[in-house]
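Write out this protein's structure.
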Amino acid sequence: MPRHSKNNTASSVFTYHESKKLEYGTKRQRLGRDSFRNYDACFLCLQTAQDPVCCGKGHLACRECMYESILQQKQSIKQEQKRLELKQQEMEISRQQEEMEAKQALLDKFDKTQHSVLGDRRLTIKDELKDEGRGEQDTSNKSRKRKFELSEDEIRSMSEKEIEKTTIELRREKEEAAKPKLGSFWVPSVTPSADDNNTTIEEPAKKQVLCSAVEKAHPLSIKSLIDVKFQIEDKDKKICPACLKSFTNASKLSVLRNCGHVICNHCVNMFVTKSKACYVCEKKTKTKDIIDMSPEGTGFASASTKAVAEKFNLAFQ
């Protein structure tokens, strides 16, 4: 019998105990009551909401926490916009500098061509024969020779193309000159890095204030906030003003946009929907003004928004 035959190391699959001990792969866990916040808890500080307000989707929060979140998001958006403006200005300055260098390179090339004896290159015998043939043809066709003129737009487009071509050549020369001379790819100085001269301007990740109570965030503003009014019987006991039942995490609740009163869904269907008015203050309420603000749940599948949590990770390879 081999020495390691009883160590269970040759199995092609993991046992249940072994897979639970591993730190990789998709993890699933059943959510209990402790994983859900209370029906009257702020989704930002997770404490009982003080001076509660909610957004247009019924997500409850403290007024102070909500205002602080909106202010921080506005400041981060302004900083991001300022950073993008500075980057755009830097790119514009670098583009103008490259254009000036290209123009200077063209002028130097033209000056060198004009002041040199043979121009930019030496003439060969074939070129001389071509020039002689052209001269004879010009003398024979002097009578029907037409003027060759270019418009201002054509001259401008030609100069822009020449400048762009020279700019690309200069940029390529700079990149070749900046490359390290070492041929070892494992040396840290040769490892690839991000391109600092990226010509594309990235858009800001966030352009407006968002409510982050759920995975799919939605727009938020101070004007759209609703003042939530719970009817309190005892110190911490909140009840429905219609049926006088206590609210729990299993209750289905709704808040009215116009007045902010919180009523259970059963009483909303019985009184508010039919009369189209608030049960407490009798303020006119349309169907679109009834906002569902049901809590996250109790941990049971029938009364929870999410019963199982999953965490995706790399699988064993």
